[in-house]
Design a protein that fits this description.
76% helix; globular; 250 residues; mainly alpha; 13 helices
Length: 250
């Protein structure tokens, strides 16, 4: 197959996918979140530009990693000359939520081929996870859940990459007075609040906040790692509590 025919086949598949109802619904639901995503992407891009990382490497990192919170967490550590294991441990802890996301997605996507599931996993994000769980609290027979996920995820991915690359390229020309840091923080806070829909999530968030403040004096921003570990510990204990109570009964 020639390159031209391969591109034509891919284009035909993309057009056919865009016409599917659930893909369009997912994309439509993701559009209102674009402003917050764009603000956070600009913040991440400006931070990458001002960290001393070259433009080509920064763009490559954005395309390959696709995890804004992990990038933001890693940048000050890299700039401070932190050991590689600290950078890896921090980004791993920050990204542990994607493992929780995958457990939630499993009932919806378990029937798909492994290659397709791996491809979809790259597009996982906080925004499209919140949208997906709001649309499908439980698997709905007769619905193509992967189409809705794909529609929302592609919009999120496109907006994120456009905004973060804009921030990388124009980072040094964007004045601090624009307040993009505050806008990005508020966008991230809004995304976090969408996940606080159960008492347990509120408890985990409160514990993580207290742990981050208590460990603020740690070097290399390790208080972030402490906060994440505390929140994960709360989740694990809450998950095992029913089983432990059952064993304690005579």
């Amino acid at each position: 197959m020639s390159l031209k025919s391969g591109v034509a086949a891919w284009q035909a598949q993309a057009i056919a996918a865009a016409r599917r109802p659930m893909v369009r619904e997912g994309a439509r639901d993701a559009v209102p979140m674009a402003i917050g995503i764009a603000a956070w992407g600009l913040v991440a891009g400006v931070a990458m530009a001002k960290s001393g990382m070259g433009v080509p490497l920064a763009i490559f990192m954005s395309l390959a990693v696709y995890a804004g919170s992990a990038q933001i967490a890693a940048l000050p550590l890299i700039a401070a000359g932190a050991p590689a294991w600290v950078v890896w441990a921090t980004t791993l802890c920050v990204s542990l939520r994607f493992m929780a996301f995958s457990f939630h997605y499993r009932p919806f996507f378990a029937h798909l081929p492994r290659r397709q599931r791996v491809a979809l996993s790259f597009l996982m994000g906080d925004t499209n996870f919140a949208l997906f769980m709001r649309r499908f609290p439980e698997p709905a027979p007769g619905h193509r859940h992967e189409d809705y996920f794909l529609g929302s995820a592609l919009v999120t991915f496109a907006v994120w990459q456009l905004s973060i690359i804009t921030g990388i390229v124009a980072g040094h020309g964007i004045p601090v007075s624009w307040g993009l840091g505050f806008a990005g923080t508020m966008a991230l806070l809004a995304l976090t609040c969408t996940q606080l829909n159960k008492p347990l999530t509120w408890v985990a968030a409160l514990v993580a906040a207290c742990a981050a403040v208590a460990a603020y004096a740690l070097p290399l921003k390790l208080n972030i790692v402490v906060a994440i570990a505390a929140a994960v510990a709360v989740g694990v204990l809450a998950d095992r509590a029913p089983a432990l109570r059952g064993k304690a009964r005579p």
